[in-house]
């Protein structure tokens, strides 16, 4: 069963844009948490500066959120 039909999205563009923005934020948050977990495990490895550098690189791969354009911004 489809909840978000094309007609519904066309009739509610702001709601659809907000829903997409929320899904993107959740995906970025999950990815960033995973990268932090990986970076912590790498930092704990007994390889000194190499592990520390690799841990920093992994953390640098995290997303920063930018505002999602609303339909009213595009028009």
Short description:
The protein has 75 residues and is an all-alpha fold. 69% of the residues lie in helices and 0% in strands.
Architecture blueprint of SSEs:
Elements: H1 6-11, H2 13-43, H3 49-59, H4 71-74
Helix pairs in contact: 2-3
Number of helices: 4
Strand content: under 5%
**Rg, Å, rounded:** 19 Å
The percent of residues in helical segments reads 55-70%
| Structural class determined from secondary elements | mainly alpha
SS elements, strand count? 0
H/E series: HHHH
Report the sheet with the most strands, covering strand number, pairing sense and barrel closure. Answer: none
Unreliable segments (pLDDT under 50, ≥5 consecutive)?
none
Termini separation: 31 Å
Mean pLDDT score, rounded? Answer: 85
- The backbone outline, from C-alpha atoms, is elongated
Give a verbal description of the structure.
It is a single chain. The chain has 75 residues and is mainly α. The chain has a domain at 31-63. Helices cover 69% and strands 0% of the residues. The protein contains 4 helices and no strands. It has helices spanning 6-11, 13-43, 49-59, 71-74. Helix 2 (13-43) packs antiparallel against helix 3 (49-59). The radius of gyration is 19 Å and the shape is elongated.
Q: Which key phrases capture this entry?
A:
75 residues
């Amino acid at each position: 069963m489809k909840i978000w039909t094309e007609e519904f999205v066309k009739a509610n563009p702001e709601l659809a844009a907000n829903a997409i923005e929320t899904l993107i934020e959740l995906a970025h948050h999950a990815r960033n948490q995973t990268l932090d977990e990986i970076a912590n495990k790498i930092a704990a490895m007994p390889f000194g500066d190499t592990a520390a550098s690799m841990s920093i690189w992994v953390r640098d791969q995290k997303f920063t959120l930018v505002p999602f354009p609303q339909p009213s911004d595009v028009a």
